[in-house]
């Protein structure tokens, strides 16, 4: 098994950048100026540490499992082998949830984001949102056509949506929710309004006056419905 050791600088807020840079200036072989804007989410006991890493310490082919030297050595989950990503999101099924971090087939990378497919724990929207927040993650935000199509294609490939018309087995939450104050749907993860939509025909309909959350996969893969 190959291991990689590197010195890491933990940055929790943007304003820390200058002070962090001055603090590490005296350290050998560490200079924040030389670090690419590569933010890595490291899962340690359900906590996430946002870490900037020196590019020059990474090999061209990142080993499947390796360690970082940062207040001790932490084993990096296999799911994050190869390239690293800026942020992570959870694709949350209405029916089931399991954060299978060690199974690559339960995640997909779209641009700078990695999405975890959680499909073995049934939760309502608010609880699903909190589940994600506990891991410093968010519900999926299908705010572009490209992202929606790529994710739908991936779910089809892993047979997550092989029978999309038989009920709720293949429906999953997004971060979309109706904001009562703004009187519009927004992406809860960012607070932004919808600039792209992919609603089913005649949706949203707010059936029974209690449908405020946006789900995907109802009746048709990738299409939106209010629930």
TrEMBL record:
Start and end residues of each C-type lectin domain: 113-227
PROSITE patterns in UniProt: C_TYPE_LECTIN_2
A Pfam cross-reference name: Lectin_C
Protein name: Lectin subunit alpha
